[in-house]
Amino acid sequence: MLSMLVREIGEFPLIDKLAQTIAEDNGSLIQRLDERGFRTLLAIGDDAAAWDGPPGTRVLTTDTMVEAVHFNLDYTDWRDLGWKALATNLSDIAAMGCSPTYSIVTLGLRGDLPVDGLLDMYRGMMDVSKVHGGALVGGDIVKSPAFFVTVAMQGAAPSSDATILRRDTARPGDLIAVTGPLGCSSGGLRMLMSGAEVRGNVARDHLRYAHNRPVPQVKTGLLLAEHGVLTAMDVSDGLVNDLAKICRASKVGARLNAGSIPADAILKASFPDDWLDLALGGGEDYELLFTASASVINGLQSIVDVPISVVGEITDGDNSVAVIGSDGKAMAVGHGGWNHFES
Questions:
Q1: Is residue 6 exposed (0-12), middle (13-18) or buried (19+ Cβ within 10 Å)?
Q2: What would the pLDDT profile of 258-288 be if each residue is shown by its tens digit?
Q3: Are 224 and 290 in contact (CB under 8 A)?
Q4: Is 293 helix (H, G, I), strand (E, B) or coil?
Q5: What is 6-156's CATH superfamily?
Q6: Domain ranges in the chain?
């Protein structure tokens, strides 16, 4: 049986269906927030959502995913799309040392999109929220020639006196560290887009999952902020690009050691000639990049349940990032990453 299309159902019945699809799970997520001291007054169904909560710092982020720019439904299924649309925002919240609270979603829809696909997308949003927190409390739907999903998400610091993580607090002598392995998301995208040969179902599934279902490091971000880290951001535009943003904000330089860049065995086996480029510049890993003293990082190793790799050092400098090879010389590397308006 063919799915009903957006143009056949209309705006308001579609809104009702989306709300009904997530009602049970979202109600549980709202209850979780209530238990944290956030009192949800109005959620989906009014002109605006309303809540109050405990005192403390709030952060706000937004991200838009546009079909044929950020995703392709030929190789990203609807449920994965919903997961990733929220995960990119959750990662920003994590990079601030905060936890998610409330989100709103705006959809730009073509009339030929399947309603069942959109319902699955919202189920994917619930999938990631049940793991990492937050709740959906509203949004908007507009007709658009390009299909897009925009999420705006609020996060909260864990206490009224908590310090949030920032980009402008790195200092010369800080070590540079990252969580997890890098490059698998970019390797997965290359495999999906170009049909790059990857041997074995396990490897293909691993790379596809890394690209379509990234894991936002919310718990880790909270631990970093709690245990002395001041400077962090998430790796969304590639390690070199994102570290350069920290350097510009903090007015420092950075040296990365090529031999210390973490990449897993599947990426290295699947892309033996390119894995380092993918890890340095691929982007969309949504791991955390942070700087801190050696003693702070050593202390984190035993309390964080994801791998932490020291990959370099913050230096006095001109806001630039140098990648140093095994011979001690600077390597020529592409900046990689993502820039919407770069030709």
A1: buried
A2: 999 999 999 999 999 999 999 999 999 999 9
A3: yes
A4: coil
A5: PurM-like, N-terminal domain (3.30.1330.10)
A6: 6-156, 175-324
